[in-house]
Amino acid sequence: MSLSSKSSENFSKVQATTAQLQTLASQVGPHGKLPTHRQLRHSMGVSITTLNSALSELEARRLIYRVQGSGIYVAATARRSIALVCDPAYFQGANHSPFWDVLLEQARQWATTHDEILSFHFAAPAATAAEQSGEMLHEGLVRDIQAGRVHGIIAVGLPVPVTEWVRDQGVPLVAFAGWSDYTVGLDGVELIRLGVAELARQGCRRIGLWRTVDLAHTLEATRTDAEAITHIFRQSLVDCGVPFHAALIKNNRHLLMEADKPRVVLTKQEQGYQTAIDVFSGSHRKATPKPDGVIITDDMMTHGALVALQKLGVMVGQELKIATHANRGSMVLLGRDELTLLEIDPAEVVQALFEMLETLMDGKTPATPIVSIKPKAK
């Protein structure tokens, strides 16, 4: 073995030992006493040199301190540092939803209550960055991750190569609006089932489904998802004894890139506005059956649709009943009592994210790799 290879192997051992000790210190808590040198060497199977290097690293970070003749203790100020890393697209532009502001505030409150250090970071935009390794993360965050100064990461909308890179650094990560080994998401299946049940209970017999499309995706990439959603919608209607009308599904996939057509860029509000216009105005109104109830899967789409429906004179709550996704604490649909809200609570999302991450930081395995937050009818 070359000298450089041996040096690299020793460095990796120190890193691994440091991570183990950091997890142990988190479990013991501030002012707690760690096992003795002998006990640590035996349980970890490392040399005294490796152990001392790891302990020195944690001392330098002020996470532990050693008292001659007494032992090794966790520092009183030892607190977990959690990075919330987001795709900036969720927080800027016309498609920015108040949901993300509410989510961020809930995350701040959780960190304060649980005495954790929370930092907020934007990744480089996915459309302009090479989605490999840590290239979407700014240099300072990359250094902190590699140095072990970040104990856990909540990733919002980050692509898989980035979350895999973080995982390879040995840092626990939980994803939202994206994918990783451990993920929190919104239960879209339950939203459709609940929406159908609520509209059927209100007497609707021609129930439609309106969905926005993510314009960052291709037509082919959304095909499987659209087919799965249609199957769930159809089965939900059958379960409630309501007829299925394929023509009442509006998923806006026609806006996506096709080989011979340019992409039409519309915000979620514009997609909602245009969908309502297409369904309830002009020749479209006569050519296709008119719904008496509609499930809308995004509150921003609903906001746009309501503008169009008011313009067309459609009486929402009477001529047309709407069951829509909504976010508790958001002002998007404030005061719209004529709607049935299928409400997601951002506090539940934050709780699930932090509890799963804290389980991982404790060196344990979460009970399930995927947590789905269910909407509640209101």
Task: Report what the structure shows.
It is a single chain. The protein has helices spanning 3-28, 37-44, 48-60, 98-113, 139-146, 160-168, 188-201, 223-239, 268-280, 282-287, 299-312, 346-361; strands at residues 64-67, 71-74, 81-86, 117-122, 152-156, 173-176, 183-186, 207-210, 249-250, 293-296, 321-327, 340-344, 370-373, 376-377. It is an alpha/beta fold and 378 residues long. Strand 5 (152-156), helix 6 (160-168) and strand 6 form a beta-alpha-beta unit. Helix 1 crosses helix 3. The chain is elongated, with a radius of gyration of 26 Å.
Instruction: Count the E strands.
Output: 14
Overall mean pLDDT: 87
Secondary-structure element series: HHHEEEHEHEHEEHEHEHHEHEEHEE
Q: Give the strand order of the largest sheet, numbering strands 1, 2, ... along the chain.
A: 4-3-5-6-7-13
Structural class: alpha/beta
CATH architecture of the largest domain: 3-Layer(aba) Sandwich
Number of domains: 3
What is the terminal separation in angstroms? 67 Å
CATH third-tier fold name of the largest domain: Rossmann fold
According to CATH, the homologous superfamily of the largest domain is Response regulator
| Parts with pLDDT < 50 across at least 5 consecutive residues | 1-6, 127-132
| Discrete helix count | 12
Which percent bin holds the helix content? 40-55%
